[in-house]
Amino acid sequence: MSTPFEDLQARAAKRWSELTEGESAWIRVGGGTSGQAAGADAVFEAFKSSVESTGVNANVSMVSAMGLMYLEPQVDILMPNGARVYYGNVNADEAKEIVEQHLKEGKPLTDRAYAYSGGDGSGVGNLPELDSMPMVALQKRIATRNFGDTDPHDLLQYVANGGYTALNRALTEMTPEEIVDEVKAAGLRGRGGAAFPAGVKWSFLAPSKAPVKYVLCNCEEGDPGAFNDKGIIENDPHTLVEGLIINGYATRSTHGYVFIRTGHELPIESARKAIAAAYEAGLLGKNILGTDFSFDMEVSLTGDSYVAGEETALMEAIEGKRSTPRFKPPFPAAAGLWQKPTNINNVKTLSYVPEIVRNGSDWFKSIGTETTSGTAIVCLSGHITYPGMYEVPMGMTIREVLEKVGGGVSVGERIKVLQAGGPLNGLLGEDAFDTMIDFDAMSAAGASIGSGGIIVGNETVNVVDLLRSLVAFNQFESCGKCFPCRLGNTHMLEILDRMCQNKAKSADLALLERVGTSMKAGSLCGHGQLGFNPIASALKYFGDEIKSCLAGEIAPGGVFGDGTMILPTRTRP
Amino acid sequence: MADGTTFKIDGRDVVAKPGQTILQAAMDQDIYIPYLCYYPKMKPQGSCRACMVEVEANGRKMMVASCTTPPMPEAEVTTNSEEVEGLRRNVVELLMSEHPHGCLTCHRIELCGPQDICQRHVTVTDRCTICPKNERCELKDTVRAVELDLRTPLNYHRRDLPIHSDDPFYDRDYNLCIVCSRCVRVCDEVRFDTALTLTSRSGVALVGTSHGTSLLESGCEFCGACVDVCPTGSLTERNYKWEKAVSEVATVCTNCPVGCQMIAEVNKFGKVVRFKADLAGAANNGQACMTGKFGYEYTNDSSRLKRPYVREGGILRKATWDEALEKIKSGLGGRSSEELAVITSPRGSNEDQYVAAKFAKSVLKTANIDSALNADNALLSRLEARLGAGAATNPIWDLENSKSLLVVAGNPTEEQNVLAVPAKKAVREGAKLVVIDSRETELTRYATEWLRPKPGSEALLIAGISRVILDEALEDKEFVGSRLDQAEELKQSLWTFDLAKVSRDTGIEDAQIRRAARIFAESDAGAILLGDDGLTDKAAELVVDASIDLAAITGNLGKASGGIFPLYRGANTLGARDMGATPGENGRDIAEMMSGMTSGDVKAALVMADGVSGYSPTLSSLPAALENLDFLVVSAALDSEITHHANVVLPAATYAEQNSSLTNVERRVQLLRITAEPKHEEKTGWETVAAIANAMGGTGFDYATASDVFTEIAQEVSNYSGLNYERLQSGGIQWPVDSSILFSDEASKVTVVALNYDELANSAESGSLTFAPGRVLSQPERDVVVRKPADMNYVDREQFVQVHPDDAKSAGLNEGDVIQVKTDDGHILARGKAVFDSPQVGLVGATTLFGELATKMHELDVADWTPQMPGLGYSTVTLESAPVEQEAGAAAD
């Protein structure tokens, strides 16, 4: 007799073969927020109607985004012969022509397409193979393995590509302790910013015998320039759902919450659909896959608050309170959500888990560096030629990411400054570009992988102006609970404002540092403790530029900043 | 952990008690660590970061907030290193950048007196005179303690917000707020009102009401807890706002039987300028209520009676004490005992009551003596007869650990406010509450089961609950078996309480009676709060019987967090009863005295009038009754409707002007202390009575001090045996000495009584319409309009009158009609839109907001306004269409 999971796999295999091995071609339009923002919806509709009107035999699907955002909207066509051709920056008006030429005539538009993959080995025209493109070749896709390939709302497509085998294996072949050990051995460190070893964190929760325990997934993701958590949830939600269920099993927890910030509409919809589908497939709820393990999951939302991403503030938010951080101890593993033992992990961290369980800790450990195994999911934006979301192995240098994956500076002459890891982390200058992407190396350089966002600035970016933007963000987002953060950010912003207006005094730098160090030592949570990071790192790489603002040497007009930075409206009563 | 954690603070060995944080352990050792957001008896918050210390443990050093961090064993805590002090200074420096600080920086600070008007040395908005808490400010103390250099380069920003002084009793100036959130937290986690909240975030995070509404609609109960905890001048009492105290005296509030211990602040002119709840108070645990916090001021009133007055030629003229006593001697003397009456003050001390009782007995030889607010006599007497004490069986704060609560015919959140605080806490922490009351009160909002029986059928309902408990075998069998006398008789009698009959006669569905029974019986510890509002004396006695039976069969007597708490009125009503200031054999009680005066049977009286008002709900006929007397002596602090017909008026000392003792509801004997010396010829109650007694030839009235009187009390009153002033100094003692819970002796027996169905059922009213007014702190489901015609806010919302469809039909009214509720003598008690949701035929309800009452009390033009707090009294009424010229939705009279 087959197991429930084997039944599920059989159904999945059937679906996948219908899509990929039948007589029909498969047109996949890249969706996600990045695709839809670029017009993927219209493109999708255009392809559907073109297929209908031309009468060709093809399925049209909105699938996950591939991550190559500079190419959105993206369309790829898999022909029954197995060759897959990729078109970038597709306009809805082109749909008909592509369908007619490529599908009806069998002549891919090689001058419109940018790459191909698969097929009989003879290639497609003079198109490069997708995997040969540096921004693809340099990636090692684990959490993003299904990006561009599957429909995120179709559980079966996820299963057909190896999904939920890890969960099945965990539930049927492994004890919770073995999973915790496996995650420990894999060297998986938390991707939320603090880089705490995930297995160790799990082992804090696992021994508790409390009847109700929670595992939470944090997708507050409010950092400007970071979109990988949202990306994973909207493009492949089941990898997170599977990871969170395994997390729940490994820690013997009873409930999981996927916590998403209100306003992240697509991820919210995607997570809710995935959870509902998992319930329907018997992957959530009572006796998962016929085993003794039962686990419930739901999506929880918070209002518009950055600090809600702090783990204890997040718990307050789920409880329906004002999302301000709690003091620690007690730590969440002792008294977290609703005062019950709780673990909280970032989306990315959990998304690696299925592959770790499926392929083993040795495999994961072999990727990345000695101290940071696995990959970094980097979000490139700003003055960069190929903005997008790229999963690269840890250990690659920043320069490689910028030059090879990102294609270097898009406008202007050179990359001057990077804002890496969100507004609570550092600014990096050229001196740091040979730093390895690795938690410890980045931290030594004065920045952090943090959320994975890298905002690239060219030589026209004024560092003080950029700092003012970052501090303005931090000030606006301070929850206002602890005094150093509430007041310190306000004063730092004020001083930076003065600097931007050529009104700073020479003593202002020392004042900035004094306020910053007080915040670091005195604040209740990371928001205040890290609030001085951008300035501290900027002083390291751009010290002279900053000091010139104090001497009144900047901007002959007296004021710089072209007014494009919109200060949050509520900085003062 | 059970024995605490040993660690070091600045090299000193310290042992922290289990659960203590570093800050608490340090405070116990008198080691000073500055703090602003922490407050004793509240959960730590960890937001001000002024209490940062360095902790070295397990080879790691870190800076932590000492208010939230428990000490690790063997940790070394440093509170005074340069780094720690520097950090604290920087944090406080940040704080001062948004707080006016001319009071700290002005170079004239040593030259100016605290009240001097400054015109030139600091900016207008920054000077010390704009802060009502100048020189009594916790923030300022902290700034000085951290030795902040105030020449800060940080820009100072004043918020420039308008001051909220449009709500009753206290002002809110958020320009001075440091957002420590003490007020928000005390309102939430201590008072459970959540009238205040944090608003917005980041640099503009502040304290306020949700959506900036008036306090009248935010659920504020004007208890002043937020004012007491505010470390700055942000929240201040409006009266005497700018007054500085020169001394503080621990004393007791004399407005209700809770007996809250208060700290009275006295200024250099000997005026009591502030009342703060005493954190050390055993009865109140640092809490107070609107009347206690703001009702103390009458003692300062300029219209206080300063000397005796005697009536001559129809007018009261100034007199000496000797003249007055002479007049009294002839006025009271030579009368038969039946013609005489003595009414003692509900605020009167044990000494006052004792001497008055002795005077009545030995000099006037009358049995007509009672305390003015002893209207709950039936309730208390029955309790006394059944349990040996007309008082609570358990301490008030026992209630915070109760697992279920039954509140019957009482409104403790208004009438015995602080007693309701631990009850509300228990509910917040999961206790289930059953309320039996026809009126909507604050507690009904928290009730798991709110039973609204036909008025008068409360006892029957309680008996029905007991019947369910027996039916479902939920009784405490061990307690019933070993501790009850006459248990069989009770059980036998309860078999006649058929639940279908009970349901019919009370108007409560049997399913709800069952649910209530299970809630009460299935919890570990259930307490009963027993009132007598709207009950006849007979009904009150039956409610007592039924309640004691219920408490007994559930094993809730003699148990912590169980017990019975009578909800009566008058601060020292219990003391008066203990001292014998209650009707003797064939004597008249207060109600009978009033009827006796009206009928002319009582001809002369001595009234101790402090806290006695003709506007008190139970004393409304007193002024007219006094008018009939041949001779009336009134000892009063203030001129009032009670003194108007007096032949002799004697100046009475107030609570502030005497050393004496009071006994609260939990039998705790507490000391009133002199906070301000009497300024003129005022005498305390016992001095007054002793002077009269001596003038009339009585013997045994030569007391020198109140303590002497108390020594005699301890000899004469057995429950007070062993007590003396010295022992009472440290916060009061419960009688009998050190029995905090009655019946806790395992060998003691509780006698239960059989209940008679017909007797219980007959006390239910029938036929007439009863108006049961309700009042709550907030009704979030209803729109509230607050208008501000001038400087003050007023609630002006549409009123609804709950009527039963049958009653409406009888009165010819339809749902939605604007109707009015009228008493027999023509008073309009409520006017509003008729809604058909009264649960009982014959019951009419209307719920108002406490904010409306607070405004009314605040605006009342009498110095001693607290006795005039209207209760939620029942009335027999008729319904009629409101006259058309009345605007729909006009506020009730």
UniProtKB/TrEMBL annotation, chain A:
The keyword Transport does not apply. This is NADH-quinone oxidoreductase subunit F. The keyword Metal-binding applies. Residues 464-509 form the NADH-ubiquinone oxidoreductase 51kDa subunit iron-sulphur binding domain. It comes from Candidatus Lucifugimonas marina. Belongs to the complex I 51 kDa subunit family. Pfam families: Complex1_51K, NADH_4Fe-4S, SLBB. GO terms for molecular function: 4 iron, 4 sulfur cluster binding; FMN binding; metal ion binding; NADH dehydrogenase (ubiquinone) activity. Keywords: 4Fe-4S, Iron, Iron-sulfur, Metal-binding. SUPFAM superfamilies: Nqo1 FMN-binding domain-like, Nqo1 middle domain-like, Nqo1C-terminal domain-like, Thioredoxin-like. It comes from the Bacteria.
From TrEMBL, chain B:
Gene3D superfamilies: 2.40.40.20, 3.10.20.740, 3.30.70.20, 3.40.50.740, ADC-like domains, Dimethylsulfoxide Reductase, domain 2. SUPFAM superfamilies: 2Fe-2S ferredoxin-like (SSF54292), 4Fe-4S ferredoxins (SSF54862), ADC-like (SSF50692), Formate dehydrogenase/DMSO reductase, domains 1-3 (SSF53706). This is Molybdopterin-dependent oxidoreductase. NDH-1 shuttles electrons from NADH, via FMN and iron-sulfur (Fe-S) centers, to quinones in the respiratory chain. The immediate electron acceptor for the enzyme in this species is believed to be ubiquinone. Couples the redox reaction to proton translocation (for every two electrons transferred, four hydrogen ions are translocated across the cytoplasmic membrane), and thus conserves the redox energy in a proton gradient. The keyword Membrane does not apply. Coiled coil: none annotated. PROSITE patterns: 4FE4S_FER_1, COMPLEX1_75K_1. One of its GO terms (molecular function) is NADH dehydrogenase (ubiquinone) activity. One of its GO terms (cellular component) is membrane. Keywords: 2Fe-2S, 4Fe-4S, Iron, Iron-sulfur, Metal-binding, Quinone, Repeat, Ubiquinone. One of its GO terms (biological process) is ATP synthesis coupled electron transport. CDD domains: fer2 (cd00207), MopB_CT (cd02775). Its cofactor is [2Fe-2S] cluster; [4Fe-4S] cluster. SMART domains: Molybdop_Fe4S4 (SM00926).
